[in-house]
Amino acid sequence: MIPQCDPGAAYRTHQTEIDQAIRRVLESSWYVLGKEVGAFEEKFAAWLGVKHAVGVANGTDAIELALRALGVGPGDKVATVSHTAVATVAGIRRTGADVRFVDIEPAYYTMDPDSLGSLLEQEPDIRAVVVVHLYGQMADMPRILEIARRHGLRVIEDCAQAHGAKLQGRMAGSWGDVGTFSFYPTKNLGALGDGGAVVCNDARIAECLRALRQYGWDEKRVSRMEGVNSRLDELQAAVLGAKMANLNDDNEARKRIAERYLERLAELDRIQLPMIRQGAEPVWHQFVIRCRDRDSLAAYLKARDVATAVHYPRAAHQMPAYARPEWLPVPLSNTEQAASRILSLPMFPQLSVTQVDQVIEAIKDWQ
User: Fold this and answer.
1) Burial class (CB in 10 A: 0-12, 13-18, 19+), 156
2) CA-closest candidate to residue 66, choices 3, 129, 141
3) Distance, CA of 361 to CA of 149 (rounded, Å)
4) pLDDT tens profile 298-335
5) Residues paired with residue 197 on neighbouring β-strands, in sequence order
């Protein structure tokens, strides 16, 4: 069976460097917020072209703490998309804020600036917007930022699927007030467990984040604010640091796989291939096609030993926990159609040309 993703393949490919990093931490006797975390934060910030990176326990915490550092809390309203990993919404809700969902652009699966504008006309008291860069491609940040600034919104970029993605030459995470990242094992930069980070250019926000991730402590371990325990541990930081050396190459491998899919599936009329936004450089966290007969295709591919996935079969507003009429002030027709038709093909850097061609031939046979 060709897996849809394979984080174990990433470990096996870089096993020597990862094992050395783990041993270094084990032998150091310092396992929480030490040199490895500091070194990774510095390296990651420099790679993104921002001034500060603050490691936290996971991507959901990253969203919560980013919003809290920007002053968002109970009773506030935060706009985001419903077509996302539900962690985006969970992070917002953990601040005590309410959610307002906006629609996506059907071609790119990311936030529709026009839908955001419509929401703000109806509810001008929105405090912040969480913009999700999905499947490795960035949202339309220039338009979204223009709308957000006009309405006085703080802008958070959810970059959990966009490590290294660019738009107009600028990295995901470097556009808004803050950027949040997940290092879940299947991400383009994945740990061997959970991990996350918040990045920014404002020293005051970074200082607040460092306090929030550790009980609100100051340098004397006095809690000056209500914080949490959300620390990126030394082991995961060391692993991430080791894997960063190959991240650009891994993203290039994903790009080559995507280009092969795009070239060899272009003639098929029963599927719709992903589109690339003008000026964008996606990193292909997922390769998502659209198909009216999605379930038929997925079943056929499974029978041909090709695994697929659906990211995501239900939009957040279609889940019982988040199905609240007051959170739906604008139509989400593009979101709902996408959830019923999308299918993620196998995509990870170690996928061989032979495997990619096997996927392609199976789809052609189904067609």
Assistant:
1) buried
2) 129
3) 48
4) 999 999 999 999 999 999 999 999 999 999 999 999 99
5) 55, 181
Closest CA to 62 of 158, 155, 137: 158
Q: Which letter does DSSP use for residue 160 in this model?
A: T
Domains for the chain: give ranges and CATH numbers. Answer: 7-102+109-244 (3.40.640.10), 247-366 (3.90.1150.10)
Tell me which amino acid residue 257 is.
I
Token pair belonging to 24: 């270094």
Separation CA 316–CA 313 (nearest Å): 10
Q: How many CB atoms lie within 10 A of CB 244?
A: 16
> Is the whole-model pTM more than 0.90?
yes
Per the listing, tokens 């985001």 go with 80
- Largest Cα separation within the chain, whole Å, is 66
E strands in the chain: 52-56, 77-81, 98-102, 128-132, 154-158, 166-167, 170-171, 178-182, 196-200, 280-281, 287-290, 342-345
Report how far residue 294's alpha carbon sits from residue 63's, in angstroms, rounded to the nearest whole number: 32
Task: Report in angstroms the alpha-carbon separations of 68 from 95, 123, 207, 208, 214.
Answer: 7, 21, 12, 9, 14
The CA distance from 102 to 113, in Å, is 9
